[in-house]
Amino acid sequence: METTTALNVLVLVAFGLLIAVTGGVLYLTVADWRDRRRQDKENRENRVQGRYKRKK
Q: CB neighbours (10 Å) of residue 41?
């Protein structure tokens, strides 16, 4: 009986850690995606501004 309880606790801890790690990976993936989008937007804006400066 005690072995079953210990195994149940270990299984719950394992699932908790799995959920925490998965959430962390998802967070970092979304943060990196948003950062790349922001950098791409800034690069496009800088290129457009550079074209207008050269024409003047």
A: 10
Kindly state the tokens that stand for 26. Answer: 């998802």
On whether the pTM is more than 0.85, the answer is no
Q: Residue 18 sits in which domain range?
A: 1-56
Q: From first to last of the 56 residues of the chain, give the pLDDT tens digit.
A: 688 999 999 999 999 999 999 999 999 999 999 999 999 999 988 888 777 766 55
Number of domains in the chain: 1
User: Sign of the CA dihedral 10, 16, 22, 25?
Assistant: negative
Report the alpha-carbon distance of residue 12 to residue 20 in Å, rounded.
Answer: 12
Q: Which residue has the tokens 């989008």?
A: 37
